[in-house]
C-alpha cells in the first residue's frame, strides 16, 4: 500500500479525480502508468501523435476519430485528468454503489456513453449527424467491400430509421431514441475498468 | 429434392418398434390415427384373422393359381409401422396445438407426454403388454441427431460464443457436480436406511446420478421458447443443456465402465484414467465436430452445380460426424453440436439462398418431428408394468436431490462467474436457470440402456427416471411461465431489425477495441478482434467462396435482408389490398436493385423477382433479359378503354386516372418504407374507389373460371405473338401479352397516337426494352430509397401488367380483372372484342376460355 499511496500522491487532485470518475486507486495507478508510457517525451501531456504511435489503433478504421475525442476543440494536448475522465466513459455501471441524490450524473451513465459515441460521428459539432458525416463513418468501417452507391443507400436507410423530424440528419435525441433497445451499458463498457 | 430423399431414408431407418410386434397392433395404431376408439375392438378381430390368412397364403411357396392381389403385410411391416407411428405422433401434435388456451398453460411437451399416456393405454388395452416403446438405439441414432443438429445450426452464434465460458462452466462443472452429489446423497440416504433393501452400491448410485444430470435440450427449448426470456438467460440455459448432454453421456460411460470393472478393482490409476477419458472424449468429440464443419464448409464451396442437393450434404455430413464420433467412442452429441455451430456461417455464405432456406426448414421439420415422437413415446413407455418397481423413498429423494443440487450448483457457479462478468447474471435469472433444469429423453435413453446384468435395479432406475422426467417436464414446465412472470424476469425485447442499431454495434466494437489499445491492456475485444482478423485472413479464405468472401459484410447483408423484407411486405400488403399495382410494384424495386448495386452484385443480391421469373419461366427457358426486352407497357387499362373514334378522350381519361392512382400509391409507398407499415385510410379517395370497384369486379368474375391455361400454351402464344408482331411490323415494337390482343389490334390503327402517348407517359417503362433505358434510370436520386424514388413512382401503375400473364397462377388472378376492365362502366369496352378478335385468329383458342 505504501507504494500505491506514493504513486497516488504524485498525481495532483487525485481525490477529486477518483470522485468524479469512480475509478479505484488501482485503476488510477494503472492508467497513470499507461499514461506515462504513452507520453514518451515526459511532457506530462499527450499529443495526437502519441496516440498514433499505438500500432493497433492505427489499424482501427475509426481510430483517428477516437483519438480526436480525447482532445477538446482547439486543444492539441490532453492531460492525465482529461485522459482518465474520457476513459471513465467505459467503466461498467455498478449497481451496488449507493446513489447520492444530489450527485452529478456519473461519467459512465448511459447518456454520457451515448454522447461519446455520438460525437464520433458528429465531427463538425453542430449537434447533428448529417448524411455526409454518416457516410464518412460508414466508408471507414465498411471499407472497400461496398460500392459508393451501396454505402449511400445504407446511409439513407439508416438516417431514415432514426430521423423523426425529417431534416435528413440525426440529432442526439433521435440517436438516443433509435438506440433505446440496445443495452448500452453492455456495449460501451470494458470489463477491466470495473 | 435432396432432403426428401434424405428424410425418406431416415424415416425408413426409424425402427421404433421392438422387432416382434404383432400385426394386430397395426389396427390399434390406425384406429388411434383416426382417433376412432369405438371401432377398435371389432376391427382388430377382423383384421387379425384376415392377416393370419394372408400371411399363411403368402408364406406358402406353391401356388395353385395366379393370384391377382396378394396381402403382403410382412413385406412392409416394419416401415409401415414406422410411418404409421410417425403419423400418429404428428397428429398428436396437431391435436395438442388445436387449442391455444391449453398450450399457453401446459407446454406442448407436457401435452404430448399426456397423449403418450393415452396411446400407451390403448396399446396396453389391445395387447396386454407394452409392445412399443422408445428403445435407446433408435433414440440415439435416429431421433436425437437431427434435434441436436438443428439446435446447433440455428444457434445464435455470436451470443453463444460470447457466453461460451459461462456455458462451459455450467455444462462441465455443473454437470459433474450434479452427478456426483445426487449419487452420493442418494447413497448416503440408502445407507441410512431410507429406501429399504436395495441391491445398489455406491458406483451404481453414481451412475444413476450421472444419467439424471442430463438437462434435456429438447424439453428446455420447448418450454423456454414459449416463455421468451431475455437472450442471455436463454443462451445460458439452452447452451448449457446442449453441451451438458454430451458431458452427461461421457460421464455416464465413465461410470458405466467403473461399474463393469467392479468396486474392488478401482484404484487411483483407474480414476485418473477415467478423468483423462472424460476430457479426451469431450474434447475429441468437439474437435471432430469442428473437423467435420471444415469439411462441410469446404464442400459447399464447390456444390454450385448440384444446388438441388446442396442442403442434403450438410445433413448427411452432420449425421456422419455424429456416427463417426460414436464409432471412435468420442462424444457424438458434442461432435454434432460443434459441427453445426461452426459450419453455419460459412455454409450460409457459400450456399445459394434457396438452399439455405431449404436446409433450415428441413432441419426444423426433422427436429420438430422427432421431438414430437420422443415426447409421445416418453409417455407411451410409461404404460408398462415391467418397469414399475415402486420405492417411495428412492423416488422422492431423487426428485428432492436433483432439484436441490441443481439450485446449489447454479447459484454457486453463477456467483463465481459474476465475479468477472461485465453484466452480472442477476438473482432471478439464476433462479430461472436452476428451475429450468428439465430432464428429458436423454436421461430416459441412458436409463433404458442400462445393463440389467450389471445393475439389478435397472427397472427401479428407469421408472424413477420416467417420474423425474414427468415431474420436470410437466410440473416445472407448467409453472415456468407463471414463475417467470411473477419474478419479473427480464423478457426478450422484441425488436425489429434496425440498420442503425447494427451500425452502432459495429461502431461500439471499434470504439471498445480502440479504448483497450489506449489503455494498453488485453481485454475481451482484443481477443474478438484478433479472432476476427485471423478468420478474415485465413479461415474465410479456406472455407468461403471467393465471391461470398467479397460480399459478406455484415452490415451490408443486414441492409440486404431489410430490403428483401420490405419488398416482401410490400407485395403482400399490395395483394391484401387487392390492388394489382402492388403486385407489380416490387418490380420497381427489382429494377432499382440492379441499378443501385451494379451488375456485379446481381448474383449475390438475389433480387426476388429475377429469381422468380427465371424459375417460373423455366418452362421455355426464357432469359430475364429477353423478357425485359420483349415486354412492352401494353397496359390494358388505357388500351382497352380506347375506341377508335374517341381514342383521344380515353387517353385523357386514362391519363387522369393514372395521375390519381399514381399519387395515392406514392403516398402509400412513402409510408411503406418506414419499418411500421401502415396505410393511411383517409388518403386519396380515388384509390379507395378504385379498389372497391376492383374488388367488386373480382367478385363478379369469381365464378367464371378464366385464364387457367397451362403455362406452356401461353408461352407458345407469346412466341406466336412475337412473330405476329413482326409480321405486322408494329412501329412501336409492342409486344402483346396474353391479355392484350385487343390492344394490338387497335395498335395497328392507332399506332401513331399510342406511340406518342407512350412516349410521354411511359418513358420509364418503355425504356426497359431500350438499352438506353438503364443509363436513364441510372441517375438515382440518392436521397431516397429505391421505392421512394420520384422517377419511377409512375412506373408501377404503368407496369401494372407487363410480364404477369406468363405464370399460370398469376393468370388466374389476372384474367378476370382484365376482362372486367373490358366490360366496365369506365372503359365501355364490352363490345370491343368482336372488333378485336378478327385480325388475330391465331389467338382465338387462348382467348376463348377468357371470354366464354
TrEMBL record, chain A:
Q: Coiled-coil annotation: which residues?
A: none
Domain spans labelled EF-hand: 109-144, 150-185
- Signal peptide range equals none
Q: What is this protein called?
A: Calcineurin B homologous protein 1-like
Q: Which InterPro entries match?
A: Calcineurin_B_homologous (IPR051875), EF-hand-dom_pair (IPR011992), EF_Hand_1_Ca_BS (IPR018247), EF_hand_dom (IPR002048)
Q: PROSITE patterns given for it?
A: EF_HAND_1 (PS00018), EF_HAND_2 (PS50222)
Keywords in UniProt for this one?
A: Calcium, Cell membrane, Cytoplasm, Lipoprotein, Membrane, Metal-binding, Myristate, Nucleus, Phosphoprotein, Protein transport, Repeat, Transport
TrEMBL record, chain B:
Membrane topology term reads: Multi-pass membrane protein
Q: Which UniProt keywords apply?
A: Antiport, Cell membrane, Endosome, Ion transport, Membrane, Phosphoprotein, Signal, Sodium, Sodium transport, Transmembrane, Transmembrane helix, Transport
Which GO terms of type biological process are on file?
A: regulation of intracellular pH; sodium ion import across plasma membrane
Query: Is the keyword Calcium in the record?
Result: no
Q: Which cellular compartments is it found in?
A: Apical cell membrane; Early endosome membrane; Recycling endosome membrane
Q: Which reaction does it catalyse?
A: Na(+)(in) + H(+)(out) = Na(+)(out) + H(+)(in)
Q: Which residues form the signal peptide?
A: 1-23
Organism superkingdom = Eukaryota
What GO CC terms are in its UniProt record?
brush border membrane; early endosome membrane; recycling endosome membrane
Give the residue spans that cross the bilayer.
Answer: 80-98, 110-127, 167-188, 200-224, 233-255, 275-296, 308-325, 361-383, 395-417, 460-478
Record-level Gene Ontology MF annotations: potassium:proton antiporter activity; sodium:proton antiporter activity
Q: What is its main location?
A: membrane
Q: Which InterPro entries match?
A: Cation/H_exchanger_CPA1 (IPR018422), Cation/H_exchanger_TM (IPR006153), Na/H_exchanger_3/5 (IPR018410), NaH_exchanger (IPR004709)
Give start and end of each Cation/H+ exchanger transmembrane domain.
100-486
**By its UniProt entry, which PANTHER family does this protein fall under?**
SODIUM/HYDROGEN EXCHANGER (PTHR10110), SODIUM_HYDROGEN EXCHANGER 3 (PTHR10110:SF90)
Protein's job: Plasma membrane Na(+)/H(+) antiporter. Exchanges intracellular H(+) ions for extracellular Na(+) in 1:1 stoichiometry, playing a key role in salt and fluid absorption and pH homeostasis. Major apical Na(+)/H(+) exchanger in kidney and intestine playing an important role in renal and intestine Na(+) absorption and blood pressure regulation.
The UniProt entry's sequence similarity note says:
Belongs to the monovalent cation:proton antiporter 1 (CPA1) transporter (TC 2.A.36) family.
What protein am I looking at? Sodium/hydrogen exchanger
Give the species. Cyprinus carpio
